[in-house]
């Protein structure tokens, strides 16, 4: 145990010491993540944190073997060489992508090569031993199953890396779980590697937790995913207990794995490439629900801890305890998916693909082209607001509320007025004039959501309302200070140059 604790401490100190250095290199090499698109940070952030994690891991491994004189058998030495070789391949590919960018297909090929290297050095799925199911040998399927497993875990860790400290925290908990199982089962090589990995990530996490000063980048997520993937299939090779099976990392990494599977389903339904980026991941859904950045990360941490406890229970429990743990895992993951509204989201995608639209979408679509003509008939501020009452009637909305500077100005009833605080009423609010004003639309939807078509058309209504407020010279129109005119200089006659 002293060796494991020493490796953990050395790796944590090395990670904490090397991360500021990696941050300076990121800015020097212009390897930074800029705001915009899927990125939610507001300033440029360094993204070569993987350099510090990789260096801390390798440095600690050298110290453990050379100075602590950790004995390694021939089999363990071969595994160590394969781990470092494949890890170096994944780190190099990720580093190149962080610096210059690489096509998704080329990255996938690199992951397959790294997985094949690991398989050649002994990291193999030669048998599958899942709780409550009979064990069976893989035979000729060993290589393809190993590649699928390693590539899948690498990309799962990469996809979950979307919030400050999220991927690093999830990997830390998974590494601690694998360490506990490997230590109790006497699998010394895996225990040492997991202790070192957990320390390297923890040292980096001090700088990566919200608000982050550096990201791990693809170099970090690829390397961490690779090490977790191959070490999870090293236990059975060393003839340790079958409890160190594929089920333990499968459960411990439940959040990134389920997020990856949901991303594949989502992109299939949207008819987009599997590797195309989007903002539909679990952490993005939590942010869209109004949960703060830090709380979203802590929620996923909490779910991961529950899954890690279940993984340990699966490794050491009796048959009924294993069954209870599996039920608990299923309940936790089902609750998380239900909480972020993924079932409703997939239902919405299915309706869009079948072109099943809400009746309110169809009613608004029929009147949206006549809105400019109707608004043009209003010759004053008050008359324009009254036109919203016409819109509520024509589009069969229940009500439209007009607010300015936080105060309710007018509530216009539609065909069947309902208070928007009613749980059965779907509502959507849109700001205008730099969020000083707001139009809030309410209606009873048979689907209970705001279809994207409805959202777009209502935004067009608000844009038209804003433009016509300017036309009638409403008092709500912001006063823009005129820029001082530059002094006009006398014209100068240009003379041809002498030859």
Task: Provide a quick synopsis of the model.
The chain has helices spanning 2-28, 49-66, 74-99, 104-120, 142-160, 166-184, 188-208, 217-231, 247-252, 254-269, 282-288, 293-316, 319-339, 342-353, 359-367, 371-376, 381-394, 452-471, and strands at residues 32-33, 45-46, 127-128, 136-137, 399-404, 407-413, 426-432, 437-443.
Q: Quick one: overall form?
A: elongated
Radius of gyration: 29 Å
Count the domains: 2
The end-to-end span amounts to 90 Å
In N-to-C order, the SSE pattern is HEEHHHEEHHHHHHHHHHHHHEEEEH
Percent helix among the residues?
55-70%
Number of helices: 18
**Major sheet details:** 4 strands, antiparallel
Number of strands: 8
Q: Could you report the average pLDDT, rounded to the nearest whole number? A: 80
| Sequence stretches where pLDDT stays below 50 over 5 or more residues | 236-244
Strand proportion? 5-15%
Structural class: alpha+beta
Major sheet: arrangement of strands:
6-5-8-7
Describe this structure in words.
The protein has 2 domains: 2-251, no CATH class; 359-471, 2-Layer Sandwich (Beta-Lactamase), CATH 3.30.450.40. Strands 6-5-8-7 form a 4-stranded antiparallel β-sheet. The protein has a two-stranded antiparallel sheet with strand order 1-2. A two-stranded antiparallel sheet has the order 3-4. It has helices at residues 2-28, 49-66, 74-99, 104-120, 142-160, 166-184, 188-208, 217-231, 247-252, 254-269, 282-288, 293-316, 319-339, 342-353, 359-367, 371-376, 381-394, 452-471; strands spanning 32-33, 45-46, 127-128, 136-137, 399-404, 407-413, 426-432, 437-443. Strand 3 (127-128) and strand 4 (136-137) form a beta hairpin. It is of the alpha+beta class and 499 residues long. It is elongated, with a radius of gyration of 29 Å. 60% of the residues lie in helices and 7% in strands. Helix 3 packs antiparallel against helix 4 (104-120). It has 18 helices and 8 strands.
